[in-house]
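Bug report (template v2)

What were you trying to do?
Predict the complex of my protein with Broken Fe4S4 cluster.

What happened?
Run completed; filing so the output is reviewed.

Input:
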Amino acid sequence: MAKELKFADEASRQLRAYAAEQNIEVVWDRYEKMQPQCGFGTMGICCRICTMGPCRIDPFGEGPQVGICGANADTIVARNLVRMIAGGSAAHSDHGRDISHTLLMAAENPDSDYKIKNEEKLKAVAKIYGVETKDRDIKEIAKDVARKTMEEFGRQEGTIVMATTAPPARQKLWRELGIFPRSVDREIVEIMHRTTMGVDADYKNVIKQGMRASLGDGWGGSMIATELQDVLFGIPNPIKSMANLGILKKEKINLVVHGHEPVLSDIIATVAQDKELVEKAKAKGADGIGVAGICCTANEILMRRGIPIAGSFLQQELAMVTGLVDLMVIDVQCLMPGLRDVARRFHTKLITTSPKAKIDGVEHIEFNEKDAVKIARQIVESAIENFANRNGHGILLPEHTEKLVAGFTTESVFQFLGGKYRSTYRPLNDAVIQGRLRGAAGVVGCSNPNTEYEENHITIVKELIKNDTLVVTTGCNAISCAKHGLLQPETAFKYAGEGLQEICRAVGIPPVLHLGSCVDNSRILRVLANVVAEGGLGNDISDLPVAGAAPEWMSEKAVAIGMYFVASGVYTLINHPLPIEGSKNVYKYLTEDIEKEVGGKWAFEPDPVKAAHKMLRHIDKKRKALRLKPMMYKQAFKPEE
Ligand code: SF4
Ligand code: MSK
């Protein structure tokens, strides 16, 4: 019998209990079976880089303190950590590279299924790269921009051009420290080189390369992905929608898209509205075709099209457990191979689409951008065909849904704050300076069965907004916030402090702003750069009264994101520590000493209220340094604790 778990989300609790009754194993069951987990791995002191090993360091000091080659805990821990950064940066950046190729294809091929949807954004990116725009055909500009962004991945000389959008003081610091990223791929390759057997054994030097690669992700690969997706699919604008598994409909064909890249999901969302296909669906007895998303591909099509969100990372299997998913189509990243076995217990058809992400025994329909609509049609038709296999037995649909407003961006929200016709960050900066806002926090990232599902996400966000801190969110945190009603403007009056309420009332925004998918954390970087450029809050990101958190993190991508925020000057808090506890030196360096070098540091705090308070204290420290008005606290805690 599966252990009864506490979930902040009732829909997930019900479905997880139902799965247990039916003997369907899902992520929480596999997590339980895995206990106790390996202490060496958790502490980062296991090395299997060469076959003299595997080696492990005895954390109690009684057994071996170095590996067979003589590598100590500091070296092993640092190497393991930066290899996580390499994995995470590679995932985001490969996504960015694919979008550059899609843009080039859209510009070169007049019959392409992709079009340039936002010329203004294309011209803004062209400006960053010095591409001439005056009196030029938009497709010519797009070709140049696509090629320039492609060069960012494999550049052999110079540095990443996109990273010149960081504040000048930050760029100067990166150059002085030798961490200004040269090219996206090069920094990832260099991590792999330095961490192979017998290369870099100085933990600080290893971590330095980790910072450089992560900056290549945040200010390079991820930023390119975000910018070019806005060009191809449109810049999001505030848009209403719904979230949670209750958005699946008994009477409709339910097609769930899951993964990260909008090149497929965006086309599916269009094709699913095709009259002929809708008629086909009706002929099969369905009341139309419903598209819903899981994880970040969901965020992509929510932000631009208002397509409802079925759930976050930990709900991918539960969506199938409803018995209502006729087809789930997946692309890349955060796809649990366990989906295959859950799908087999239901009529659900699971389809992989990327040559990079197949699952043994699962139907594969290979997607390519050249035949995007044709392939999307094939997938939608497959969902329609499979509707007849839904036998009506064993359906459990928790009726839980929540309204939301998403679609905020670096451009749109602050245009809002600046008034309709003035695109300026001045009102935002002024609100912080005058003390209506304490500051801002980015709360992002995954969920993890090692934490009570969504409890940390929601508690931390509520505590921050209560204390007049504007929250921006991406990834699965954004989905959790949506499911718990935090993305509604009215929420401000329930949970936010008076200053933040005042702003939300004046501008009509929620106190928690959904900025998109995981690659869209680059929007947060851009917001920070714009706030610095607006003036009055210091010269660099590290001067700002801001903090970041990933309260239920699990992915290597979260490590890359956290590290690029730290290296950009941001205090970054996660619940469970990085796997570095096996090295006192690495731990101290990342949680203390690194701040003297880059202005940001890591913090670990599993208790969400204490975590929020740590972030607030950091924000207040920055306010004090800027000589801004001290803030009141909405809950009894000692500011200096
Ligand atoms: Fe062991 Fe050194 Fe080989 Fe790692 S690199 S497995 S510590 S011998
Ligand atoms: S999907 S990386 S679980 S946020 Fe981007 Fe969610 Fe984390 Fe995947």
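What did the reviewer find?
The radius of gyration is 24 Å. The chain has three domains: 73-233, 245-389, 408-626.
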